[in-house]
Amino acid sequence: MGQTDPAPQQRLVEYVVDRVLDETNTDTKILVLARQDGHLDSFPIWIGSAEGHAIKLALDTTLTPRPMSHDLVKSFMEHLNVTVRRVVIGDVKNSTYYATVYLENNGVERTVDARPSDAISLALRTRAPLYVSEDVLARRNTANLESWLAKQDVKSSTKQPEVQDSCVIRCEGARKDDVDLFTETS
Amino acid sequence: MHLKGLMFDPYNNAYIVVLRDEDGHEMLPIWVGKAEAGAISMALENVAPPRPMTHDFMKSILDAYDAKVISVVITDLNENTYFAKIHLMYQDSEYTVDARPSDAIALALRSNAPVFAKESVLNKQSSEELEQWLENLKPEDFGKLDS
Asked: Rounded to whole angstroms, what are the CA distances from A31 to A20, A61, A81, A111, B127?
């Protein structure tokens, strides 16, 4: 993992999209990434609800009557013969994650700066791999998030229909300062 | 067509993008969702968000390979299904890409590309409907975009 990256100083860990959770009392969703190799290490990113919706559509491979924004991006790339090689969440500043989309066309590589949600929405639609840099993994502050998600996991594994409810309760119970919210827009 | 405005439709809980032709005779209302309206209003007001929004990202990808948006054409409006075509120029070839009008307009505004509507669309979607709707509108209904 990461050996193919042209920037060897950036060690990468491969992740997959696990799920998108609703945070019903705010207009946000939580995108949860999981390690591709099965190691238990969830990586949550707070995103907007429209962005979460775009990811959910791709996760569930929902067919929409008209192309959604990221389907349009994919369509552009098909017309121009551009492929997504990989998506890397490579930086975090002021609790905001930064993603880079690596593109290729006839051997010409280009990188485009993006919000993780846009990058991941596109990666899911183009089946491109997703990586988080070890630097970002080391710098995130997850002490509170891990326990927050652990409780989610316990509840969701015992009874499926309660997931939404438990999420609401947890969100309401947690003050904003309790959980260091790592977002993509700050 | 010029983008005349964007307003909130409290009855349908949606937004309306109003396009008007050059000499102001024809109006074309297009109903869009909240996220789509946000993407258009940011470009209209020249707001530079701290991070690239979806259509900025879209444009960055086109820019990365020197692909240009030449024009956008609203080709059909049918009940809840709206159609547009984005005309791209890339390496001396022209490409036509199917899109929703909201995405097409959001991208056209960011690319300074002209927006056209097929005459058949204008004839079909008579602006009477909009005029009636506008008459029922109260002043308070304007300027709700930030909500």
From this structure: 5, 16, 29, 23, 42
Average pLDDT over residues A145-150: 60
ipTM of the complex: 0.85
Q: Determine contact: B99 vs chain A, CB below 8 A.
A: yes
Distance CA B41, CA B123 (A): 27
Nearest 5°: the CA angle B73, B77, B83 is 45
**Contacts (Cβ under 8 Å, ≥6 apart) of A72:** B58, B86, B97, B99, B100, B103
In whole angstroms, give the CA distance from residue A44 to residue A34.
Answer: 9
β-partners of residue A132 are A13, A89
Q: What's the length of chain B?
A: 147
Max CA distance (Å), chain B: 50
Chain A residues in contact with B15 by the CB 8 A cut-off are none
Q: What are the strands of the beta sheet with B27-32, ordered from one edge?
A: B2-9, B14-20, B27-32
Whether residue B57 lies within 8 A of chain A, CB to CB, comes out as yes
Could you state, in chain order, the average pLDDT of each consecutive group of 10 residues for chain B (147 residues)? 83 86 83 90 87 96 97 86 94 96 96 92 67 66 53
Nearest to A176 by CA among A50, A51, A23, A42: A23
* Contact call for residues A123 and A129 (beta carbons, < 8 A): yes
The pLDDT assigned to A105 comes to: 95
Residue B42, phi then psi, degrees to nearest 5: -60, -40
